[in-house]
UniProtKB/TrEMBL annotation:
It catalyses: ATP + protein L-histidine = ADP + protein N-phospho-L-histidine. This is histidine kinase. Pfam families: HAMP, HATPase_c, HisKA. Residues 178-231 form the HAMP domain. InterPro entries: HAMP_dom, HATPase_C_sf, HATPase_dom, His_kinase_dom, HisK_dim/P_dom, HisK_dim/P_sf, Sig_transdc_His_kin-like_C, TCS_sensor_his_kinase. It comes from Chryseolinea soli. Residues 239-456 form the Histidine kinase domain. It is found in: Membrane. The keyword Cell inner membrane does not apply. One of its GO terms (cellular component) is plasma membrane. Keywords: Kinase, Membrane, Phosphoprotein, Transferase, Transmembrane, Transmembrane helix, Two-component regulatory system. CDD domains: HAMP, HisKA. The chain crosses the membrane at residues 7-29, 157-177.
Length: 457
């Protein structure tokens, strides 16, 4: 069931309930008024008859019957009977009694003073009437022909009105639901037209005041984020393809040149070593790309363990200097630090990758291939690592871009690198709820500050 049909049914149900309550209330109060009015008129007729019989000496029962017979104010099928305290009938209207009057009924009237009851279409009333000398029991009955006809006519009018109203409400409810859902249908139509080739399109936000305008605004915000993500992905794929293609092209060219004519063994060894170096660079690049992809889908605490951050620093220093013997890494920290204060919780492998990248960058982009690492644990909530070096530094307009994938500063294009390392470092630090900042004075010092929260698994 679609929303339009559901809204129509809800609207229809509410109106049906409301009309039912109104119609039933009208009928109930009309019936109640008819009954009260009929019994009031019936009692007035019976009271007047009893007064004439008991108070006017010149009028006896026979004369009163003739008077009532020709009275135009008499009710249809009117029957009035008057009894004394011995249950003797003093007066009764002409014709057959339309209700059965017995001793039980008369005693009930005397006990309750006044009762009303119904036999078929005949409605009857019994009450006590007292004059100056005696008390009488009066029973009056009649058929409210005109009242019942009016009530039946009212019932027919209400049923007809109710039926026509249901038909009208159904049509109006369907039209109303369509008008309400029209803006939503418009939004759905606009969203369905947006694809990866026209991500720059946006939804109409209308008057920017109602809920649908807020919905369109939310969609537009989401589209902006999606467009940025698609653009980032597109650029990432283009840059990654370029970075991968370059060493492959170089290695292919070297092999092609070596096959043009016979060469001496030393030349082939040189070519093989160059190809091996290219393959290693390609392996490092694909490893960095794989790590970047893994950390993008990484679930924090999945591989978290407790380990000492100083052990990771020493291990990565040894690994880096083994690969690049000319690099110098100085680690500076207070030897009086409690060993337990150096414990952090995290993915040890990823944190080592981040440390190695920062060490490598510090040495690679410094003038003397040297980086200094300061380890601080003064704040019990965080462990702080500062990676500093002396070199060309980073220009102010490039500081906000150095963590973007594949970005490389203009002054460092001659130095070998892929531009992935810092973006990977930031992602790893972020996964551990840490922070990384950079401060650089061109030609002087460049310092990266990493803070990891102290947590234990």
């Amino acid at each position: 069931m679609n929303i339009r049909t559901r809204l129509t049914l809800i609207f229809f149900s509410l109106v049906v309930v409301m009309l039912s309550v109104i119609c039933l209330s009208i009928y109930f109060f009309s019936e109640n008024y008819r009954k009260e009015d009929f019994y009031r008129r019936l009692k007035n007729r019976a009271t007047n008859t009893a007064k004439v019989l008991t108070e006017v000496k010149e009028v006896n029962a026979d004369l009163l019957k003739r008077m009532e017979r020709n009275n135009p104010a008499s009710l249809p099928n009117q029957y009035i009977a008057i009894y004394n305290y011995r249950n003797e009938e003093l007066y009764s209207s002409d014709g057959t009694a339309v209700v059965k009057v017995d001793t039980t009924l008369l005693n009930r009237i005397r006990l309750q003073n006044e009762i009303s009851f119904k036999e078929g279409k005949v409605e009857a009333l019994g009450f006590l009437f007292a004059d100056r000398y005696d008390r009488f029991t009066v029973v009056a009955a009649a058929i409210d022909v005109y009242g019942l006809d009016a009530l039946a006519n009212l019932r027919n009018v209400l049923l007809l009105t109710f039926s026509l109203s249901l038909l009208l409400v159904s049509v109006l409810g369907w039209i109303y639901a369509g008008r309400v859902l029209r803006p939503i249908s418009k939004i759905v139509s606009q969203v369905s037209e947006i694809t990866e080739v026209n991500m720059n399109r946006r939804l109409d936000e209308g008057n920017q005041k109602d809920e649908l305008s807020k919905l369109s605004k939310t969609f537009n915000s989401m589209l902006e984020r999606l467009q940025a993500a698609f653009l980032s992905q597109k650029n990432f794929i283009a840059n990654a393809s370029h970075e991968i293609k370059t060493p492959i092209t170089i290695m292919t060219s070297e092999i092609d040149v070596s096959l043009l004519q016979p060469r001496n063994p030393d030349y082939y060894v040189k070519v093989l070593r160059s190809v091996l170096g290219g393959l290693r660079d390609l392996n490092d690049l694909t490893t960095q790309l794989l790590l970047l992809a893994q950390t993008s889908a990484f679930e924090p605490k999945t591989n978290f363990t407790s380990f000492r951050i100083d052990d990771a620093l020493w291990e990565m220093k040894e690994e880096l200097q083994k690969a690049f013997p000319k690099y110098n890494v100085d680690i500076d920290f207070d030897l009086k630090i409690e060993p337990d204060s150096l414990l952090i919780a995290g993915d040890e492998h990823l944190i080592k990758v981040a440390i190695l990248n920062l060490m490598d960058n510090g040495c690679k982009y410094s003038d003397d291939n040297r980086t200094v690492i300061q380890l601080e644990v003064g704040n019990t909530d965080y462990i702080t690592l500062r990676f500093g070096n002396l070199g060309k530094g980073i220009e102010a307009d490039e500081l906000g871009k150095i963590f973007d994938p594949f970005f490389r500063g203009k002054g460092n294009l001659s130095i070998k690198g892929s531009g992935i390392g810092l973006s990977l470092v930031r992602r790893i630090v972020s996964l551990h709820q840490g922070t990384i900042t950079v401060r650089s004075v061109p030609g002087e010092v460049t310092e990266f500050t990493v803070r990891f929260p102290v947590r234990k698994v």
